[in-house]
């Protein structure tokens, strides 16, 4: 089973090493911390917290990173930096799945979010789940009932979903995910002045997907996981359709005002839901393996 301090004997400094690397990387590239939070969602939501997300396309494996749902994900190379630090102290001991989980936990703290104690002992998959990603990760324009059902199937209730979406209080959205709300007409649920600003960020209705054209999720506190996200939603400044729908859907809307007015309540719910997400269906005991390199299954296995 997963447990607190799983590595206390096999690699006593494991959690410390992850934290040190997360801090070092944050100081060099602040947005690495943002990536660690998104990585947890994209790994754990798809079947299991098993580091399937990190596998590269090789042999019979098609990387989950090539999915349309992984669009905009970045900083994968720095996962290797964290893993290398662990390998040099405790070879083949700490799983990539635990690196995903612990780096997200520590990334949240760097971004001013809540501290959490997290259980460890996850093991790494031998396979990628790229063929089924779309059955698990919602799209930016999916309906709220569908989004809620996806999370419900891994044991996360509506209150937890609303809190988790607060991760969109940091990071960015590329124009390809926005322009359908800006052109040809401005989505009437979007604040008109904000829409004009967004048109400035995304001047073309058909942006080149390879162009670095994006808007920050939260213009006011772009690098802090705080309840500003919910204040923006109440002011019709939600960026993605799914964000804005949290306010209009009767199941989720009651939680928005509460989170907008109480950052402590938001943080409590965010921790609760992130821990649930981080424990979704892990591989344990003798399932899977401990990958040496997070990008590839070990040679001779799988
Ligand atoms: C219905 C659920 C969700 C949908 C449809 C969704 C969709 C998206 C999209 C389209 C982007 C922008 C990608 C881009 O254009 O670069 C994004 C960014 C992001 N998402 Fe989500 N998301 C969802 C839930 C979550 C959850 C639960 C978390 C974490 C707990 C999360 C964390 C993030 C982060 C941190 C970013 C910013 C990434 C960066 O700046 O590099 N998202 N999401
Ligand atoms: Ca996974
Ligand atoms: Ca913020």
Describe the protein in words.
Its EC number is 1.11.1.7. Keywords: Biological rhythms, Calcium, Disulfide bond, Glycoprotein, Heme, Hydrogen peroxide, Iron, Metal-binding, Oxidoreductase, Peroxidase, Secreted, Signal. Pfam families: peroxidase (PF00141). The record marks 38 as: Transition state stabilizer. This protein is mainly alpha-helical. It has eleven helices and four strands, in the order βααααβααβαβαααα. The radius of gyration is 19 Å and the shape is globular. Bound molecules: protoporphyrin IX containing FE and calcium ion (2 copies).
Keywords:
mainly alpha, two-stranded antiparallel sheet, binds calcium ion, binds protoporphyrin IX containing FE, heme binding, 41% helix, single chain, globular, 302 residues
Average pLDDT, rounded to a whole number, is: 96
Q: Order of helices and strands, N to C?
A: EHHHHEHHEHEHHHH
| Strand line-up in the sheet with most strands | 1-2
Q: Can you count the beta strands?
A: 4
Structural class, please?
A: mainly alpha
Report the biggest beta sheet as strand number plus sense, adding barrel if it closes.
2 strands, antiparallel
Low-pLDDT segments, ≥5 res: none
Bound molecules: protoporphyrin IX containing FE, calcium ion
Helical amount: 40-55%
Terminal residue distance: 22 Å
* Percent of sequence in beta strands: under 5%
Count of separate DSSP helical elements: 11
C-alpha Rg, in Å? 19 Å
Global shape: globular
Cofactor: Ca(2+); heme b
Binding site for substrate: 138
EC number: 1.11.1.7
Domain Plant heme peroxidase family profile: 1-298
């Amino acid at each position: 089973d997963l447990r607190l301090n799983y590595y206390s004997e096999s690699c006593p400094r494991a959690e410390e090493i992850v934290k040190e690397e997360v801090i070092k990387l944050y100081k060099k590239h602040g947005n690495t911390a943002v990536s660690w939070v998104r990585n947890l969602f994209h790994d754990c939501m798809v079947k299991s917290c098993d580091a399937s997300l990190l596998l590269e396309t090789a042999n019979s494996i098609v990387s989950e990173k090539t999915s349309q749902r992984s669009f905009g994900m970045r900083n994968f190379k720095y996962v290797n930096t964290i893993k290398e630090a662990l390998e040099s102290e405790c070879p083949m001991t700490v799983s990539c799945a635990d690196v995903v989980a612990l780096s997200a936990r520590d990334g949240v703290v760097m971004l001013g979010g809540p501290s959490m104690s997290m259980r460890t002992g996850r093991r790494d998959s031998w396979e990628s789940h790229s063929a089924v990603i779309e059955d698990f990760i919602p799209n930016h324009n999916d309906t709220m009932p569908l989004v809620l059902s996806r999370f419900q199937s891994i044991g996360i209730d509506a209150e937890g979903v609303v809190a988790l979406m607060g991760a969109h209080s940091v990071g960015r959205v590329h124009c390809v995910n926005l322009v359908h709300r800006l052109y040809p007409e401005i989505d009437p649920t979007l604040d008109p002045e904000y829409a004009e600003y967004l048109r400035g960020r995304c001047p073309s209705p058909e942006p080149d997907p390879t162009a670095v054209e994006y808007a920050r999720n939260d213009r006011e506190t772009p690098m802090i996981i705080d309840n500003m996200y919910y204040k923006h939603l109440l002011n019709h400044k939600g960026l993605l359709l799914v964000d804005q729908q949290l306010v209009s859907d009767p199941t989720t809307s009651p939680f928005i005002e509460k989170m907008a007015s109480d950052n402590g309540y938001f943080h409590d719910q965010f921790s609760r839901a992130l821990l649930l997400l981080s424990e979704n269906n892990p591989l344990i005991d003798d399932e899977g393996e401990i990958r040496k390199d997070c990008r590839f299954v070990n040679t001779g296995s799988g």
